[in-house]
Amino acid sequence: MNERTDPRTGRGAAVRFRRPARALFWRLFVINGLVFTVGTLVLALSPATVSSPVLLTEIPVLIVGLALIIAANALLIRKSLAPLDTLTTLMRRVDLLRTGDRVTESGNGDLDQVIGTFNEMLERLEAERSASSAYALAAQEGERRRIARELHDEIGQSLTVALLSLKRVVDRAPEDLKEELCSAQETVRASLDEVRQVARRLRPGVLEDLGLHSALSALSSDFSQASEIAITREVDPALPALSDEVELVLYRIAQEGLTNVARHSQARRVQLSLTHKRGQLTLRIADDGCGGVQKEGAGIRGMRERALLIGARLTIESPPGGGTDVRLVVPPHAVKEN
Question: What's the whole-model pTM score?
Fold first, then answer.
């Protein structure tokens, strides 16, 4: 008897562990023993006889008997080991960013424990990956807020002071210097606008102050102006009350999705929608670009990690030449209803 913690209850429970390798050995040993025992009994009780030396007429009987024994043995062993194929296939394709992939095929009594232990291991790894991602993303958001605050409060204020100083200098400068000073003034103003845009992307103040609807509207407007790609926005006006974490995940995934469209898609139009049906939220970013996304980069993997934080499912369809369709489905249990 050994003590282990039940992953579903979190409590210790006394469990009798069997050794799968030893149990499988005895199963195969018994199968082979039964097959050869049955073959021996059939040979002993049947009217068939074997002479010494063996007669030509007895050779077909021996060959048929041997073939039946081998076939029965192979069939029973194959049935016993069949779940290992499913287990091996899952091991090759498992990805902790795509949760819920489990071995559902029921094995025999010996392999059930192996399959169950493997599924429990996946659950633990997914939980640990989700927790570590949550810590990392929380630290990332904290660093984003700090950098955005420093950009706004320090660099932004310094550029504002420089811009006001240049304005006073321009007003008193002689005519032959005004053109150069005005050019420098425009450069400082453009730099101040860029700093504000970077700070806004790092820390979406509109999300905190005005909510998700306004934040997505501002994000769409900034994207359209910067990329010159036409965007159609559709946000359900009757969205339920959402937690800050869900709103931030939706905003960041929409932000990353639009960034990928601008960088890689060669699209002319993009659609951003957020709908609420049957208790679940669906965020969709679809473009008419070149598609053909085969390898997931850091951006997409980051989107998957954020989706895991709220138990959402992220799917990406990108046929070559058919554009890219990114969907994030937030289940009802993660949506905080009014």
Answer: 0.63
